[in-house]
Design goal:
Layout: H1 5-14, E1 55-72, E2 81-100, E3 103-115, H2 120-130, E4 146-151, E5 154-159, E6 163-166, E7 170-177, E8 180-187, E9 203-214, E10 218-229, E11 242-255, E12 258-267, H3 277-280, E13 283-293, E14 298-306, E15 316-324
Antiparallel strand pairs: 1-2, 1-15, 2-3, 2-4, 3-6, 3-7, 4-5, 7-8, 8-9, 9-10, 10-11, 11-12, 12-13, 13-14, 14-15
């Protein structure tokens, strides 16, 4: 017997639900650039918390395709640089939060893989259809994994074999205060810098997430904060000690169970002492998508993230998140 998805989806959207004030929250998404995401960039705009004594959880998936190449100086000479980032990265994260005594105890456990993947053909066809710039992607072999950074003619990073493993776990505490949530988190070096699943060093962040102006069918959110990085194993001489992060978003309630959202996320440079935008440039990411409310506390986010600022963020990242009360 064959079943259609559409009647089930229609039943879900038309099912009765309690009409609540519209309070959208940000995507659980940050810059997925292969050399940025290992530093523990925080998600922003999550001014949502479980009730006292209750727990919340989320399962996040970021599927990213990235291609960029650049060089500076005469090849192989002192002061020269060359970089190729051609990879498909999957970042699967399990997050949990419990509220006790007005405080939130939070944990984020990621699992990260890098491979040649299979999205290159689809993205090439999309660029052909839309006429969008390719950044040289069409000249590279399809579905190749090559993450390589050379400095002074020597390879500092060289990853050409598919790999994966546990990323850097983050533990945090947070305090809801009115329409804001103040968060502090520490990033543990549980990943592997050689596999680009971690930075090899401790890190941390402090952020303030907030709800902005809102109406019956629209709402805004945002967040600001700072990322702190200690000496790690990934480009330790070029890694900055801190960076600023910020985000703003707008949500539209299309139905009691369906909403559309757009978010602008950015951060200042994480690296220095480089003439290449892939390292020394700050980043902006535009994430567009929506959410389906499965119940009053459970929702499914879906989105596409793109790079208005080339080189320092990926070509495209597909984001999905199933979350409950956070």
């Amino acid at each position: 017997m064959r079943y259609s998805l559409w009647p089930a989806l229609a039943t879900l959207l038309c099912a009765p639900t309690t009409t609540l004030a519209y309070e959208p929250v940000g995507f659980a998404h940050s810059n997925q650039h292969v050399l940025m995401q290992v530093q523990g960039l925080p998600e922003l705009g999550r001014a949502l918390a479980p009730e006292e004594g209750q727990a919340g959880w989320a399962l996040d998936l970021d599927w990213t395709s990235e291609y960029t190449a650049d060089s500076s100086g005469a090849a192989g000479m002192p002061g020269s640089e060359a970089i190729v980032l051609d990879a498909e990265t999957v970042n699967l994260g399990l997050r949990g939060s419990v509220r006790l005594g007005g405080w939130l105890l939070e944990a984020d456990v990621p699992y990260i893989t890098h491979s040649g993947g299979g999205l290159d053909g689809f993205i090439d066809d999309w660029h052909d259809f839309t006429g969008l710039p390719t950044g040289g992607r069409e000249q590279a072999p399809r579905d190749r994994l090559l993450i390589r950074y050379e400095r002074d003619g020597q390879a500092v990073i060289d990853l050409q074999q598919a790999t994966g493993g546990l990323g850097d776990i983050q533990l945090g505490v947070a305090r809801p205060v009115g329409q804001t949530v103040v968060r502090m988190a520490v990033k543990l070096p549980t990943g592997d810098a050689d596999k680009l699943t971690g930075s090899g060093g401790l890190g941390g962040s402090m952020t303030v997430d907030f709800r902005g102006p809102a109406g019956d069918w629209w709402g805004t959110w945002g967040g600001v904060g700072a990322l702190v990085m200690s000496d790690g194993d990934l480009l330790p001489r070029q890694q900055r000690r801190w960076a600023g992060v910020g985000a703003l978003g707008l949500g539209l309630r299309l139905h009691e169970r369906l909403e559309a959202k757009v978010e602008l996320y950015g951060h200042t440079p994480l690296y220095q002492d480089s003439a290449l935008g892939q390292l020394a440039r700050g980043a902006l990411v535009i994430t567009t998508g929506g959410a389906i409310r499965l119940s009053d506390k459970t929702s499914l986010d879906f989105a596409v993230a793109e790079n208005p600022v080339a080189k320092s963020s990926p070509d495209v990242s597909f984001h999905f998140a199933l979350r409950h009360a956070i």
